[in-house]
Give the backbone structure.
Amino acid sequence: MRMRDSVTIRKKGICWAVLLLMTACASTDSYKDPKMDFGSINTVAVMPFANLSKDALAGDRVRDVFMTMLLATGDVYVLPQGEVAKGIATSGIANPVAPSKEEIIKLASQLKADAVITAVIREYGELRSGSSSANVISLSLQMTEVQTGTVILSLSSSKGGISFLDRLFGGGGEPMNTITEKTVKDIVDRLFE
């Protein structure tokens, strides 16, 4: 084997390894009820997001981005946050980030919503590993049908993190807002597909 061929093979191998590691930085999972007609959902209520991250404002930030992107699709009407907050108060929901089946049904009948969306932010913020750091977000979302209180859709998405290139050359990855928008867009794109 000639020297030039072995260098070319090594370069190709490194390129494939870099591509493989870059795709390992994002993950997605989903469940969709095959019996549900998602075309019948016209109005949704988005509950406050549960926040398991260290950033106290992550739930509000991600919920705002999600509601804006969902409304921008034109597929559904997203009830304003104030209306949802008023419905939560009048329904007497003790824990709005994790309402019970009965609470969801009661809230939806007051708000005239076809579905209620709840979500959990598992990670949000800077991730450190050795001398490298990068932003990361991990979000799980559920949609509940309001006639029976059944979960009809469950999606999750994670973006960001420390890539091979971040470890190799340093750097901080993408800005938090960019990663948040990418994660939310991934979920919104899969909601009604």
Summary: The radius of gyration is 21 Å. Strands lie at 27-32, 43-46, 50-51, 77-78, 115-129, 132-145, 151-160. Residues 3-23 form the longest helix (21 residues). Residues 11-27 have pLDDT under 50 and may be disordered.
